[in-house]
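Field reference: sequence -> structure
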Amino acid sequence: MTFARYAVPLLVILSLVLGSLPSPALAISTQAEVRAGQAEDEQITRSEVIENDPLLNAYVRSIADKLWLQVARKDIPYNIKVIKASDINSFATEGGFVYIDEGLIDFVQSDDELASVIGHETGHIERRHVVTLNSKAEILNILLGIASIFSPFIYDFGNLLGATVMAKFSREDELEADRTGLQLMARAGYDPEAMVTMMSHMNVLADEHSDLVDKYLQDHPDPKARVAHLMGYPELDPTKVTEQQRLVQAISDEERARYSYAALKLQNILAADPHNAEALLRLAQAQLALGDTSKSAQTLAEAAQAGSPQARALALVREASLREIEAHRVQLLRLDPDFGRLSRAIAQARQTQSEAAQQLSARRDQGHDQLQAVQARLQDVSYELPNTENLQIRPNSRLAAVMSNLEAMARAVNSGMDDATQVLNGVGSLQPDKRSGLLRDGQEILDEMAAPLAMHPVPDESIAIFPSYSHMFGEISRADGDALRAVDAARASLTQMDQGIGDLDMFLRALNESYMTFGDLTTTDYNGLVPRMTQVMNEFNTAAIEASQADQLFNMARARQLSARITLLGVGDSSQRYATLQYALEQRFGLDGISYRAMLHAGVTPGEVVAATILAADCDDGLNCPENHTPQEIIETAVRTKTPVIDLANAYGMHAWPMEIFMGLTYLDYTDDPTKELASGGASSSNVGI
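Structure field:
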């Protein structure tokens, strides 16, 4: 008999997932739930690319472990994995398995926001929501990519199945998971308000992609209603949270280097209790970290008057430290920087960036044309996929081998398409009213560098950063070069993908003409298919590797820009401010970079110190690095070989995406805008997870 043709797109995993959908939920034992979760985990890890960067996985696990110390279900062996996908998504399955997409980790703006997501997913497991048919539909929703905002091809495929397979999720379950997640994160020491700010960010996403989240909003509780529920819980209800609890939360934020959040909360506490000496001392430290030394000095003076003798003594010591900063700045003023030369250098950097932007825009547009052509060809070829719905495929059979290869092809195609799409979309634009992506970010950095030169007089704190401008020009130039190479690599991967699709078409035609006996392919037909199948697999794997290299270059560019942004914070203008950066690095990575004197001696920037610290931490967690890989040794190698730290990380095999993630989180410790986020009372339009 020959295979019948079935009009479905290229995601062979569908046949595996459909076969695992359960009957309506029955009460099952914990052991049965864990076994079911393990079986689902095998399917998911077979069908998705799982991120293996040691530092990133250690980071995610560290947050999850803190939450899981608070769970009631001690009989569940909780697990968490990061899926290599740009979707802003997360989900949970039976037996304690939680999955987080890379795109979501890139999207959150603090450890606390990520804790809110993991807490919500854990809430589904704690309340046994994931043993129901609705939660199985949730898993299917993720695997098919219905909520994907980056892949129209996959999104369209999801819609074909939505009417027949999907089940609406219980609104009560979602709210209960919110409630449980909020309790877990608060008990674990995370800021409960982060769940609200996370929903605020997702609400912005909903506004930008409303046409892609309509179905989600139909199937889930109204986001604003979810926030309203959250605000009624004791952890967030302003009528139930005591001043002492607020102070504890603010201190926790500062102890985890969330300087901007700590400052806001401490200011609110002092509005009600202006003479709270502990709050004053803490606020002065946060103000120092944020670069407002004059306000820090004023706050310390207030603390000296309001506090105990011990508080007064501490305030006086810190005031003396602030006076050292001012003395250091007076010395810098004597250097008489050449403002005209700096202005000319910025103008030249703008011209170079403009030329790079023109090249990027042209190549990006060509890449988008290629992407659309590949998506159309995938759609056409999907009609050649065989229908195995009524077949009992025996393990280790020839037919099982073919289906396994088709599944691997789908995984390679999805991975390659996702990486190529992210690069082409992430380049962005400099068109008026359409500024976005890497191009916008590079322009904004130059704008920020130029701004002090237009002031009269030029601020002292800006003069302190001027010696680092040459380093930042280099970072921006290298970022533009990485972006160009990334787009070229993405286009090359699509060319390879297109070739593979052509050969896939021929392979599927041959497969459909093959014969079966006793439920399996004949030996002759199978042997004839193997060379074609191997060729297609190799072509798709090559395309996926090229797309991964494009993604690596793209994230190296993002990391370079963040290095410049961190330096522009001015955290290197004094040993006192630099100490706040060292503290933030110690809290997150267990390493404090290098000393202030060593940084000045090496002639490197705070951004480079952060990158070296992240690389050293990844080496410690299992990356294949040389023996000498402390932050100090990495900086020395970079200086000796005249190799930027980001390039060293690439040479040592570190994924650039985690480097960009951790540099971004460090930057956000200083720059996140809690006033805007908490005032918005934002709603969530996240994908299945939050």
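Note: The radius of gyration is 27 Å.
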